Amino acid sequence: MIKRDFYLHKLIRNMWNGEIKVITGIRRCGKSVLLFDLFYNYLLEQGTADSRILRLELDQRRFYKFRNPINLCEYVENILNADPGEKYFLFIDEVQFTIKVRDEENGGIEVTIYDMLNELKSYKNLDVYVTGSNSRMLSKDIATEFRGRATQIHVYPLSFAEFYAYAGGDKRNALDSYMLYGGMPRIAALTDESDKKAYLQNLYDELYVKDIVERNGLEREDVLNAILDFVASEVGSLTNPTNISNALSSMRGEKINSTLVSAYLSHTMDAFLIQMARRYDVKGKTYFNYPNKYYYTDIGLRNARLNYRQFDPGHIMENIIYNELVRRGYSVDVGVVTERSRSEKIQREIDFVVNDADRRIYIQSAYRIDAEKKEISELRSLQLTGDFFKKAVIRMDIPHSFYDDNGFFHCNLIDFLLGDVEIF
Fold first, then answer.
1. How far, in Å, CA of 417 to CA of 424, rounded?
2. How many Cβ atoms from other residues are within 10 Å of residue 148's Cβ?
3. Which residues contact residue 260 at a Cβ distance below 8 angstroms, ignoring those fewer than 6 apart?
4. Which of 402, 353, 406, 352 is nearest to 376 (CA)?
5. How far is CA 82 from each of CA 51, 122, 275, rounded to the nearest angstrom?
6. Distance between CA atoms of 101 and 99, rounded to whole angstroms?
7. CB 236 within 8 A of CB 295
């Protein structure tokens, strides 16, 4: 069992907070294992009796009757009312399998699982947790339905720290494997490389693409696949729907509308397959509409999308750093600073502007800096911010962390990913 203490502690912190806990994330990232194994085992270890944990897995035949939300609500209420002095936990997996029904006893009004769980939420001796997603309803939809009444705990694929804690061995070898195959939990348990590749490809063919197509009624699956390919090949590069539509139109010999591309990109983000980082004017303190950057939620899925033909470690490293920053809960943008000369204005990029409440750090991702010219180009944007927030360069080519003469913090990638250094 792979430990997911980062998320387990979030569940523990939010126990009995009066809200429904909604566990969200890309499919196959470990949401159900987190709830039904790791959190369940924690409760047992803390002395909670198994009979006090009500587990309803709605994809299992023996629980089909509870897909009717009235049946589910009445089942739970009967237990609570029979034993009001005891505290109970309710776990519901694959909540999207529930159906809408009419409550004939109350005028035939339409009832959903959200109505019933909101009713159960009023019981002071019940703590509710739900998870689930498929082509009918993504976990993002579930969180939206509970907005204002729920605590959302978003689960990502394995971080490198989680992956290494399970895999062990040489850190650099582990990182090389992680950069190639990513952090989907099943990957960590597979030893054969062909099995890893087949698993990731199967996720695409049998799960993610089909889910997006079926859920949104898409007519152009071929265009969706082309967009996924394009974004995978352009990870870490600035782009927008118009650029993508122009590129696809040229490659395919047909007009691909930018509005269609924009809609399809939104669907991939709704499925948590791709994430978007917006561009932020550091000095003007405003956001640009376009272009932006897109990153894959799991770098292994990105590589599988390209059939492992385009292994560019610099952009892969940047994608992994972005994922790690957002996983830690930071707000992450792409920074822009303008350098003015007598003849022109030059926009220079800061890979990541990272905010944590009133704290900020600027981060450059640099696979290696092996020449003075390269160092000047990498660090120039940091020098132009005109403020005193911390500035860091995360690198693969240094054995340990240090501060340079400009006060910039240079950090080894592995140390950063393992949490061995504090960036703030």
1. 14
2. 5
3. 220, 223, 245
4. 406
5. 13, 16, 47
6. 6
7. yes
pTM (global) more than 0.85: yes
376 three-class SS: helix
Strand 390-395: give its sheet, edge to edge.
286-287, 279-281, 331-340, 345-356, 359-366, 390-395, 409-412, 402-403
| Dist CA 206 CA 126 (whole Å) | 37
**pLDDT tens string for the chain (424 positions)?**
899 999 999 999 999 999 999 999 999 999 999 999 999 999 999 999 999 999 999 999 999 999 999 999 999 999 999 999 999 999 999 888 899 999 988 889 999 998 999 899 999 999 999 998 876 677 778 777 876 778 999 999 999 999 999 999 999 999 999 999 999 999 999 999 999 999 999 999 899 999 999 989 999 999 999 999 999 999 999 999 999 999 999 999 999 999 999 999 999 999 999 999 999 999 999 999 889 999 999 999 999 999 999 889 999 999 999 999 999 999 999 999 998 877 788 899 999 999 999 999 999 999 999 877 677 777 999 999 989 999 999 999 999 999 999 999 999 999 999 999 998 8
Interaxial angle between packed helices 171-181 and 193-203, expressed in degrees from 0 to 180 and rounded to the nearest 10: 40
Structural tokens at position 207: 């799960």
Task: For residue 181, give the 3-state DSSP assignment.
Answer: helix
